[in-house]
UniProtKB/TrEMBL annotation:
Residues 122-135 have a biased composition (Basic and acidic residues). Residues 25-97 form the Transcription regulator PadR N-terminal domain. Residues 115-169 are annotated as: Disordered. This is PadR family transcriptional regulator, regulatory protein PadR. Pfam families: PadR. InterPro entries: Metal_resp_DNA-bind_regulator, Tscrpt_reg_PadR_N, WH-like_DNA-bd_sf, WH_DNA-bd_sf. It comes from Streptomyces prasinopilosus. Gene3D superfamilies: Winged helix-like DNA-binding domain superfamily/Winged helix DNA-binding domain.
Amino acid sequence: MTKGLPATGDQRRSQLLRGVLDLCLLPLIAERPRYGFEFVEALADNGLDLVSEGSIYPLLARLERERFVSSYRAPSASGGAPRKYYRLTEAGRVELASGRVVWHAFSGRVGRILTDTGPTGEAHHDGPAHHDESAGPRGLPQQLGVPGASTMDPSGRCSRSSPFIWRKR
């Protein structure tokens, strides 16, 4: 279960997390090299305790195949078998920066939809939840030097040719 959230939503939270778990791993790796179980602990410390080692290792293998992370083996502090540690590559840093931009734009838009409509879907703009459509990180990708940022249209959305379109993994 995820801390602070009702157990009835575990399946929905699991589905949502599945789509962004690789993006959650990259900043943890950027902090310092880690081995598999440390990711489970770090995610749980951040309230994402639905994640098991069985979910982490396939993602780490894919991130390594895509050259976003590299790995090395080091002796275990407890004297056990050597552990496989993961560290971020330069391509991983670029992917993390790109992913952050996409996530903030995407989550902001989803948040607006969820807060700007009433229980039956009608729009309501009676409070601070209403957001000005012109607000947003329009120039942020270019300011961050994110590769491909010029493929975003003036509204901050990604064009069809943009590398920031969520791809199915």
